[in-house]
Amino acid sequence: MPLFVRDVKVDMLMQSLEKRLGVNKTEIVRRALNLLDTQSAVVVSLAEQVALLQARARSEGLSGRPFDDKELMDDLSGGI
Predict the structure, then answer these.
(1) Checking CA distances to 41, which of 11, 69, 75, 77 falls within 20 to 30 Å?
(2) Residue 34 in contact with residue 42, Cβ under 8 Å?
(3) What is the DSSP letter of 61?
């Protein structure tokens, strides 16, 4: 199946990669598609990342309750 590239910049990039990597265009496209496929499968949404962090914090005993840090700050300031 032929693949026609009509973008000059893409064609220049392809030629540069052919020379640098010493492989043909088919192999370059194969590698690029495999890389993109792998990267897109690993992507975790921001909401999922936040949920994972919240679950981890809860498992370590951290809660979402506000913390009154006056006593801590007074202690750290050394009674200034």
Answers:
(1) 11
(2) no
(3) T
DSSP state of 64: S
- Report how far residue 6's alpha carbon sits from residue 8's, in angstroms, rounded to the nearest whole number: 6
Task: Dump pLDDT digits (tens) for 47-67.
Answer: 988 999 999 988 888 777 777
Q: Is the pTM of this model over 0.85?
A: no
Q: How many residues does the chain have?
A: 80
Model confidence pLDDT, tens digit, residues 7-57: 999 999 999 999 999 999 999 999 999 999 988 877 788 898 899 999 998
For residues 46 and 53, is the Cβ–Cβ distance under 8 A? no
